[in-house]
Specification:
The protein is α/β, with parallel strands linked by helices. Helix content is 44%, strand content 18%. The protein binds pyridoxal-5'-phosphate. Pyridoxal-5'-phosphate binds next to helix 6.
């Protein structure tokens, strides 16, 4: 695609300001993202100005296979020419094949799948299934958790700032500090329908579950007769170095949610996996009790099926583990050199860098964008820059991104010193 003029870029941004979201348009420009994305392949995004960027944000986990993985594109093209959407009157084969594949990959007896189009919808289904399967109303979730912005998912999202304008939400929700089993023991009771946890808190600041935490959560739920929901919308399908985040603790949840990477970076799709016992209680009397018009379309399922095959055949979970260690080592060198980082942490290729000062994080993201590397902060903890590149990233691409990061941090520190000296 030919490079576009500054006027053409400005025209797109202007339409965002007039017709999409003026605040967002300002924020993106201020953050160093005042360009238009036009093409992408692998780890590289091409902008209208002609600049090429390394994608280390990875669509918050969407682009695990990189952009436009050829096998996913081919599967989608084939399905597109046959039948992209379902009549919903008949069965469709891509959905049947994908469901079998997910059931084989998932731990324990998570052998049924409900399909939707996003992470929040996958969580909505999980919450409704938990209430119906247990006949209880309460939920326990973690402070800092992020589960989406629909009314139900927002109700269990652990950040006041996003919940408050929409109150009253589901009010039977108790929030507990993450990684504290003692708090779970107090909160999960015979009124709890489900405990909902991420296996690595993504928007909460890339906080991995401490070893044993999820296993203890499982025991606590079993003792109280509550369900355990693992929200793997961001951590699922290899991102953390295992197929699922729960695999690190050898835990089988009762319900597991997926989205983001499931569509292979090409199609949107959400999935809620559940056990036969839950299936019987939720859908036993009425198979239409929870539905979605577009969920599980042949096109999305064909993309997801190809994505799962690539993740397995290319060993992307293992790649995430190895490249994650490489990335963390490089970032730790920056920590030693600059002293500006409070922490470098993460699992697999879900890595976060926490700064002493929020200002440094914001300036560093801007500086990285100017140096051709896309990164972002975590929504519920803006002191943390996240690195979630495609799992196909090379070590040399990691080195390039970390060099840009180091330069951007040093530049940010210099700017802040300058401001202080004024
Ligand atoms: C763990 C988790 N759950 C749910 C969601 C919501 O997904 P979506 O934005 O597709 O609705 C997200 C999105 O970041 C997430 O990280």
């Amino acid at each position: 695609m030919a490079q576009q003029s500054a006027e053409a870029i400005e025209a797109v941004i202007d339409k965002y300001s007039r017709h999409v979201n003026p605040g967002l348009a300002k924020l993106l420009q201020f953050g160093g993202f005042g360009d238009v994305e036009v093409e992408a392949e692998g780890c590289v995004v091409t902008l209208a100005s002609g600049a090429k960027c390394l994608d280390f944000l990875g669509g918050y986990g969407v682009f695990s296979l990189g952009h436009r993985h050829p096998r996913v594109v081919e599967a989608v093209q084939k399905q597109l020419h046959r039948m992209p959407l379902s009549t919903r009157a008949y069965f469709n084969e891509p959905q049947a094949l994908l469901s079998q594949k997910l059931a084989e990959a998932a731990p324990g007896s998570l052998q049924y799948v409900f399909y939707s189009n996003s992470g929040a919808e996958a969580v909505e289904a999980a919450l409704k299934f938990a209430r119906m399967a247990t006949g209880r109303t309460g939920f326990v979730a973690a402070e800092g958790a992020y589960h989406g912005k629909t009314m139900g998912a927002l109700s269990v999202t652990g950040r006041e700032k996003y919940r408050k304008p929409f109150l009253p939400l589901i009010d039977d929700v108790q929030f507990v500090p993450y990684n504290q089993p003692e708090a779970l023991r107090r909160a999960v009771t015979e009124n709890t329908a489900a405990l909902l946890l991420e296996t690595v808190q993504g928007e909460g600041g890339i906080v991995p579950a401490t070893p044993g935490y999820l296993a203890e959560a499982r025991r606590i739920c079993d003792a109280a007769g509550a369900l355990l929901i693992a929200d793997e919308v961001q951590t699922g399908l290899g991102r953390t170095g295992r197929m699922f985040g729960v695999n690190h603790d050898g835990v089988t949840p009762d319900i597991l949610t997926l989205a983001k990477a499931l569509g292979g970076g090409v199609m949107p799709i959400g999935a809620t996996l559940y056990t036969p016992e839950i299936g019987l209680r939720v859908f036993g009397e009425n198979p239409y009790i929870h539905t979605s018009t577009f969920g599980g379309s042949p096109l999305a399922c064909a993309a997801a099926l190809a994505a799962l095959q690539v993740i397995e055949e290319e060993g992307l979970a293992h790649a995430a583990e190895e490249k994650g260690i490489w990335l963390k080592n490089r970032l730790q060198e920056v920590q030693e050199r600059t002293g500006a980082l409070r922490d470098v942490r993460g699992l697999g290729l879900m890595v976060g860098v926490e700064f002493e000062l929020q200002d440094v994080a914001e300036l560093a993201i801007n500086g990285m964008a100017r140096r051709g590397v896309i990164a972002g902060y975590t929504l519920n903890n803006p002191r943390v820059i996240r690195f979630e590149p495609p799992l196909i990233v090379s070590c040399s691409e990691i080195d390039t991104a970390v060099s840009a990061f180091a330069e951007a941090v040093e530049e940010a520190l210099g700017m802040l010193e300058g401001v202080e000296a004024l």
